[in-house]
Design brief:
By secondary structure, the protein is α/β, with parallel strands linked by helices. The strands form two sheets. A seven-stranded mixed sheet has the order 1-7-6-5-4-2-3, sandwiched between helices.
């Protein structure tokens, strides 16, 4: 079976975990997590424009939740979110008590439709949450400008986008996932970063149950025993075990991205059929490879599975789910949701695997 997604782990990750288990003496948030944060700061500074403040947390969903809360968003507020995203984006907002407002997408790219966002804004709208669908940043600057013009924060769901060159702004908070199948993994993990140091410092407290300045104490190898808590916090910190895996993975990111972009280039260059529509995506740091199949998508996926090829459907439009169902239609998201197919994309794919996927897709299009 050719898997849709898969982590690429080796002896380096195993040794890093064993070192924590046998020698570190502390499995919670400690020196490995602090070291990983420093290495991520350096990586982002080198890959992007300017310096950034950041903190690691337990998952990418936790990162989104913390960012939303840290911006003061809660009951009575609204956040604009493209319907075409994983449910985590919506759940992170509704967890604060705020309303997740589903917005349409451009079916040619999967990116948020800013004209739809504009039409759904109200006096309660406090932020927009663009999604770096498949890791694409081609709409980022437009979203930043839209938010600034309308007095909104940007909570950037960049779960797919690690490895992209980011630009940093005071009104933008970016959240990335390091779960088991992302561009690098911590097993489970996430990171929040922003040029807005004040927001990141607040997130650091919130991830440790709201205990003020506990991150500072842990960076010194200690704990806070006499402390104050002024608002609801969460147990969302990253453990030393997860950080150790992430540190080993971070050393491989350039090799991982090179392999991923190579596989994408083969799909783009070697798959061609009137029933398939390729998407307008920035492929510099691809996480998934979605395309639109303009026939019977479910049968197409089933036929590929019979041939030993797993596929995905990223995603079902969130405004069609019972908990987030809207009284209005979002035609772009609905069309996309019905036709999207994701082909296998991960570093463990061999050249033969890629050739098999391409040949089988071409064959199934002719059936």
């Amino acid at each position: 079976m050719i898997k849709l997604s898969q982590a690429c782990l080796g002896p380096e990750e195993e040794a890093a975990v064993v070192n924590v288990l046998r020698h570190d003496g502390y499995l919670g948030m400690g020196k490995e997590t602090i070291a990983f944060e420093k290495e991520l700061e350096t990586f982002l500074k080198d890959a992007s424009s300017g310096s950034v403040s950041l903190c690691c947390c337990h998952t990418g969903t936790a990162a989104l939740h913390l960012a939303t809360q840290a911006l003061g968003i809660g009951p009575g507020d609204e956040v604009l979110i493209p319907s075409m995203t994983y449910i985590a984006s919506f759940q992170a907002v509704s967890a604060t008590g705020a309303k997740a407002v589903a917005v349409d997408i451009d079916p040619n790219s999967g990116a948020i439709d800013l004209s739809s966002a504009k039409s759904l804004m109200t006096s309660k709208t406090k932020a927009i949450m663009p999604v770096l669908y498949a890791g694409s940043m081609h709409m980022a600057n437009d979203v930043y400008a839209f938010a600034k013009d309308n007095g909104l924060y940007v909570i950037e769901d960049a779960a797919h986008g690690f490895g992209q060159p980011f630009s940093f702004h005071d009104h933008v908070v970016t959240c990335i996932s390091f779960d088991s199948i992302k561009n690098i993994t911590c097993g489970e993990g996430g990171v929040v970063f922003s040029k807005n140091t004040r927001i990141v410092e607040k997130i650091k407290d919130l991830r440790l149950l709201g205990v003020e300045k506990d991150s500072d104490q842990r960076a010194k190898g200690g704990r806070s025993w006499d402390f104050d808590v002024k608002e609801q916090g969460w147990r969302y910190h990253m453990s030393n075990i997860n950080a150790a895996i992430g540190r080993a993975q971070l050393k491989k990111i350039h090799l991982f991205l090179k392999r991923r972009t190579y596989i994408v280039s083969r799909y783009l260059n070697e798959i061609s059929h009137p029933m398939i529509q390729m998407l307008a995506i920035d492929w510099r740091a691809p996480h998934i490879f979605p395309m639109l199949f303009l026939g019977n998508r479910d049968k197409f996926r089933q036929d590929l599975l019979k041939e030993g090829i797993e596929t995905g459907a990223h995603y079902k439009a969130n405004h069609l789910l019972s908990f987030y169902r809207t009284p209005y239609d979002l035609k772009g998201a609905e069309f996309f949701s019905e036709h999207v197919v994701s082909l296998p994309l991960h570093v463990n794919l061999t050249d033969e695997d890629v050739s098999t996927v391409i040949a089988t897709v071409q064959k199934m299009c002719l059936n």
